[in-house]
Amino acid sequence: MAALRVLVGVKRVIDYAVKVRVRADGAAVQSDGVKHGLNPFCEIALEEAVRLRERGAAREVLAVSVGPPACQETLRAALALGADRALLVAVGPAAAAALGPPDVARLLAALARAERPDLVLLGKQAIDDDCNQTGQMLAALLDWPQGTFASRVEPEGAGAVRVEREVDGGRETLRLRLPAVLTADLRLNEPRYATLPAIMKAKKKRLEETTPAALGVSLRPGLRVLALAEPPARQPGRRLETVPELLAELRRAGRL
């Protein structure tokens, strides 16, 4: 079987360890001066692509990000983790904030038609919006088979890949003809840490760049955020001494 070319989508998000705060105007979350990083699910997808290359099943791993210039940092991280190439679809900060899954899916579809990968790997969702839509929309736009929530990926002969995916009732195994779109679940693998030499080398590598216009995609964001608010503060609890007291409180609250 010929080695595969793999395209991996990576997204820049606020670091998972940061407590997210809503801006004073309520229009967005506070992102200035906040640590950002590679979306954890995208990191799992990238790790799987690198492992495929290390096993000889893939010959090239292309990491792609859509967003403002700050996404170059995310792509450098992807190179340090093992990607062979990195490409940024440059979008201004204001336009990037308005991008939704349909817009990103259309840009990735245009890139897939230009780069002609055998496999597209994405994280199943991003931890900032939790949409879980881009991979499915991309597969529909390309008319390619899709395997979502992948927990195991095994390339097969005759241009196919076997995917084990997690579903509500357990696990499901699919055999997909290539090219195909896969989205990575948590149990697919455990991403590696970037070594210092790899980080230093990644800083010197050239980043490719394109624009939506160059890809022939006109962005038409259809989603507008009206307002954001932090969850209300939790009310303090009260200790009850007996079960009858508890039942009385539940009845008073209409829970029984």
How many domains?
A: 1
Distance linking N and C termini:
63 Å
Instruction: State the CATH topology.
Output: Rossmann fold
User: How much helicity do the residues have?
Assistant: 25-40%
Strand-residue proportion: 25-35%
By CATH reckoning, the class would read Alpha Beta
Strand order of the largest sheet: 9-8-7-10-6-1-4-5-11
Order of helices and strands: EEEHEHEHHEHEEEEHEH
Biggest sheet record: 9 strands, mixed
What is the average of the pLDDT values? 91
Q: CATH-wise, what's the superfamily?
A: HUPs
Describe the SSE topology.
Layout: E1 4-9, E2 12-14, E3 36-38, H1 40-54, E4 58-67, H2 71-80, E5 85-90, H3 93-98, H4 101-115, E6 119-123, H5 134-142, E7 146-156, E8 160-167, E9 170-177, E10 180-184, H6 196-204, E11 208-210, H7 243-252
Helix pairs in contact: 2-6, 4-5
Question: What can you tell me about this protein's structure?
Answer:
The chain has 256 residues and is an alpha/beta fold. It is built from seven helices and eleven strands. It has one domain: HUPs (Rossmann fold). A nine-stranded mixed β-sheet has the order 9-8-7-10-6-1-4-5-11, with helices on both faces. A two-stranded antiparallel ribbon has the order 2-3. Helix 4 crosses helix 5. The model has no long low-confidence stretch (mean pLDDT 91).
